[in-house]
Design a protein that fits this description.
This protein has one domain: 3-Layer(aba) Sandwich (Rossmann fold). It is 41% helix and 11% strand. It has helices at 11-21, 34-42, 53-67, 72-75, 78-81, 83-88, 100-111, and strands spanning 27-30, 91-94, 117-120, 134-137. The protein has 148 residues and is of the alpha/beta class. It is built from 7 helices and 4 strands. Strands 2-3-1-4 form a 4-stranded parallel β-sheet, sandwiched between helices.
Length: 148
Amino acid sequence: GDRRGSSEPSDCFKLVRTVVARGMDPLIVFAFGKRAVEGLAAQMGGLSDLTNADERASITQIFENAIDTLSEDDKQLPQVSKMLPLLQRGIAVHHSGLLPLLKELVEILFQENLVKLLFATETFAMGLNMPAKTVIFADLSKFDGSQF
């Protein structure tokens, strides 16, 4: 349910916290739609960091090397500026609205086990062999424009 007005953690947050506590990460949470993916990632504010200092340093280095190739205008995009703080915690989002460079960056970090918690749309599942221990589906049906 929608709990925006409540301080109660979401069901997704509680499930993710339990999975992580049991060492069942890396995990992918699939949701249908960019907004759903972003919204679920935003619910993870209270989750403790999933990375250690060495991993955070590697993530920062890889991220900075990757975005060096972007134009100054692209570097100012919210999807770029908001990504590093999440990545440093071991959390990422992946959907069709991201710049191709950022999607590739997330895929690399996930393969290297630097991203432990990934919120993604079904585009991430297409033809990729990603090493997840746990997969969670936030929704079981997708709206096709007229029905679920």
